[in-house]
Write a structure and sequence with these properties.
This protein has 183 residues and is an alpha/beta fold. It is built from 4 helices and 8 strands; from the N terminus they run βαβαββαβββαβ. The longest helix is centred in the N-terminal third of the chain and has 16 residues. The N and C termini lie far apart (42 Å).
Length: 183
């Protein structure tokens, strides 16, 4: 007897009102990635226009996990950060043609003992289909950002649930209250 495996997707929509709130959301995501146990192998695909806050979100994650000086990998293409809890890999595909992305070997990071963040994932032809968080960021005004976060796969579902709880409980290490509107 064969079983029909259906991919399920869970979604969370949030609105941040400032760059600091986006950093706080990133910190909450960092806490969610560690949860009760680190969630290695999750890939976070970050979509949105230039300057919308993709790297700011990753910087917040890095802050929560103890990574010093998270920077945009626009010119280096891939940055790796070793942290006590969970290694972070951050890739920026903006300057690459889809045919060049294959040479980066991003699939080697997915499912590995780290979390992979990919900016401009639409340029990655062989994106993973499980353990993925898709984060679409849209600018609604000069300071306001809409985050549409969806999960695919058991590990990503757990991270999204941890994020919901962190936001609901107001957990963060910044001293700044979580200032989100759930859409």
């Amino acid at each position: 007897m064969t079983q029909n495996l259906q991919k399920t997707q869970r979604t969370l929509c949030l609105i941040t009102s400032s760059e600091e709130a986006t950093l706080v959301l990133g910190r909450a995501l960092g806490v969610a990635l560690v949860g009760t146990a680190p969630m290695p192998g999750v890939t976070v695909l970050l979509s949105g226009d230039l300057g919308v806050g993709k790297t700011t979100l990753v910087r917040g994650v890095g802050n929560a996990l103890g990574a010093a000086r998270v920077r945009s990998p626009s010119f280096t293409l891939v940055n790796e950060y070793r942290t006590a809890n969970l290694p972070v890999t951050h890739a920026d595909l903006f300057r690459l043609e889809p045919s060049d992305v294959e040479d980066l070997g991003l699939e080697e990071y997915h499912g590995n003992l780290n979390v992979l963040f990919v900016e401009w994932p639409e340029r990655w032809a062989n994106q993973p289909e499980r353990d993925v968080l898709k984060v679409c960021i849209e600018s609604r005004s000069e300071n306001e950002r809409l985050f549409d976060i969806s999960s695919l796969g058991e590990a990503a579902d757990s991270v999204l649930q941890n994020l919901r709880e962190a936001i609901k409980d107001g957990k963060n290490d910044s001293g700044v209250g979580l200032q989100f509107t759930v859409d």
